[in-house]
């Protein structure tokens, strides 16, 4: 940059932080790039932080000390979360979503970037304190959502598969009972996928009885790693035998396929 | 916002545009939010545009007229693209990636947000002129990459599956020969997934002979839609019988499993 004034600094800092969620940038990095004093930079960061808070575009967190700096936390304002969850609820209650077998068609939802970006921001808020090392999901419908959560946490995504693919080298496999199919299924993950002692957040699109979650927990224990949270877009009202902090954004209250009626509610735990 | 000066405007506009790639915001939207004149806003946008160009953080495009406005195109500087592709090449050439069967382990790469975000930005540049309506991929390894491309193009992602799942309602199925397995496989997509007459960009992690691409093309023709481009992370040197504009970022030059040597090159078509 040729002439670097306050305007140029604010544009560069805002764009850099927002494009790299949860990535810590040292003040020295910005001072060098922008040829400015740390005190000047601190004022800029305070201002950006204020505007973000006021407009609900997320938060800036500053870390003091030698290894300190600043990073961006991609969250939303509470009222924007509620507005989004109401939109999602209404969208899902469209009776045309009921497909044969009494299932709900949600592919367009779970692969729509506008929708899953916002859902991912809510999961950031819900699991921010968990010190997560990896985001995990099971193929295939949860991958796009989990990938946004991974981006926002700035952590790698690992994907368990339902059958061992020979392009992954040696794998760890476990069996579990799927709540959706009622059948025994296999979950498999490459041995190279996760380091020992990792803390993992599991993200998926849909949860019934929690069979997949228990499967994931068993799989992770083979990696000497632990499941520290579960975030799903939609859960049924079935009893979940899951002993981990889990949050669903929406709850499927009732699906009456015969009369083409389907009802969701917003999980009160999420917006309380 | 209480007091809205130039600094506040620049922070808000930068953050809003960057967080919503390819989404057109009318000047009126910003004028209303920021209580400023259009001429003032135009100056702000010009300045942001200049800083983005200088620092390689993407581009702003302005559209004039009544339906006009401004949007953000997430691209990178040429030298950053080349630096990234060299990094990726070196990362992939690690002999430990060679797994049994003479395959290459790339799961950590294709699910690493830092990597696929940058790859997605290159695909934005490569296919910007194609007037794309959907991004398509096939489960499962390409989903995260395709999901970033979809986010950056601000278009829905559609995912074809290798077996029909009963939760998707009626589906369209086609058979194709996979270059990776050499077997006849099935590709399936929900009937609701794509509207008629759509222009589709296919994104995947790996391409051998192009069987999957031909499969996708056949599948799309069932939706009276057309494949207008193919972007893959890695392609082998095998002859591709594919009659569509396709670009791979890297080329797998040689895999010598016995001597644990693996060589990639950067596709000259991409960086020319």
Automatic annotation (TrEMBL), chains A, B:
<keyword id="KW-0804">Transcription</keyword>
<protein>
    <submittedName>
        <fullName>Pur operon repressor</fullName>
    </submittedName>
</protein>
<comment type="similarity">
    <text>Belongs to the purine/pyrimidine phosphoribosyltransferase family. PurR subfamily.</text>
</comment>
<dbReference type="Pfam" id="PF00156">
    <property type="entry name" value="Pribosyltran"/>
</dbReference>
<dbReference type="GO" id="GO:0045892">
    <property type="term" value="P:negative regulation of DNA-templated transcription"/>
</dbReference>
<dbReference type="InterPro" id="IPR000836">
    <property type="entry name" value="PRTase_dom"/>
</dbReference>
<feature type="domain" description="Phosphoribosyltransferase">
    <location>
        <begin position="111"/>
        <end position="247"/>
    </location>
</feature>
<feature type="domain" description="Bacterial purine repressor N-terminal">
    <location>
        <begin position="6"/>
        <end position="74"/>
    </location>
</feature>
<dbReference type="InterPro" id="IPR015265">
    <property type="entry name" value="PuR_N"/>
</dbReference>
<dbReference type="InterPro" id="IPR029057">
    <property type="entry name" value="PRTase-like"/>
</dbReference>
<dbReference type="InterPro" id="IPR036390">
    <property type="entry name" value="WH_DNA-bd_sf"/>
</dbReference>
<dbReference type="GO" id="GO:0003677">
    <property type="term" value="F:DNA binding"/>
</dbReference>
<comment type="subunit">
    <text>Homodimer.</text>
</comment>
<dbReference type="InterPro" id="IPR010078">
    <property type="entry name" value="PurR_Bsub"/>
</dbReference>
<keyword id="KW-0805">Transcription regulation</keyword>
<dbReference type="Pfam" id="PF09182">
    <property type="entry name" value="PuR_N"/>
</dbReference>
<keyword id="KW-0238">DNA-binding</keyword>
<dbReference type="InterPro" id="IPR050118">
    <property type="entry name" value="Pur/Pyrimidine_PRTase"/>
</dbReference>
<dbReference type="InterPro" id="IPR036388">
    <property type="entry name" value="WH-like_DNA-bd_sf"/>
</dbReference>
<dbReference type="GO" id="GO:0045982">
    <property type="term" value="P:negative regulation of purine nucleobase metabolic process"/>
</dbReference>
